[in-house]
Amino acid sequence: MPSEEFIRGMLYLSLTVVGIPGNTAVILSLLLALYQENHLLPADAIILHLACVNLLVVAVRCLLETLASFRMASIFGDTGCKAIIFVYRTSRSLSIWLTFILSAYQCLSIAPPGSRWASVRALAAQYLGLVFLLLWIINTCMSSAAILFSLGTKNDSSLTNHGINVQFCYVSFPSKLSKQANGAAQVGRDVVPMALMTLASLIILVFLYKHSRQVKGLRSSSSGGSSGAERRAAKAVVALVTLYVVLYGVDNGLWVYTLTVKKTMSSSLISDMRIFFSSLYAAVSPLVIIASNRKVNGRLRCIVPKKPVQDKATSVCAM
Known about the structure:
three-stranded antiparallel beta sheet
């Protein structure tokens, strides 16, 4: 096996080993909470949906890339490439937009009760299912180019004119204009939620700074409770957004560079780096959620209780 394929396989294997158990743990803990409480808070419902989409990203892209790199499976034919790239692009985009929805909802959650923004938050929670449906429809339609232009093998030299080399597949566009238009649409689909979630995170940070100034030097119990939980959740969302902006910023920078190349690159190194950085968010974000979300953390302790604190774990499970 060539060293390049081995390194690629090990990188994707590392994402698979971290991402699949991590996202699965988040999904199981929130499903357990749903079973016990018969409902989920809107923020938890968004996190559950985000974990499902991230699991899809890691399973469809990283796991299959690992199997192909180590030559354990041959799944990247024409049909396989169309399906894998389509599902990956759709789930990747959904991961981006759900992170924005989570940051926007958390930004609304810090609004004072009775304000106009609090009313917007209640309206958003009421129609959250419709928001999910619209996101699926929009992102599925925007990923349809993968079905039209993806190929498993390079059948002729014309594919090198307006194509993108993604190692086991080629995305061959019929013209330079179609390639640039598709690329611009994908960049816009990423940059818009990136800008919006960055703005939401800045608002959250300003609120946290002002709140810390107001309660500085106070040690009363009134400063805890639900406001403390909201601050913890806000900090976790800011951490997720920061992780997203860094990783997807690199991803989009490499994507723009790919669009500027006149001919398809003979090496898939740039595409591999893009996929790795975008999949890294899907693999690492559940670790941030597990560490910061008390509901997820508590349910995981219920699933795998420790003997010395079994009585505490049982009390949490009974909630």
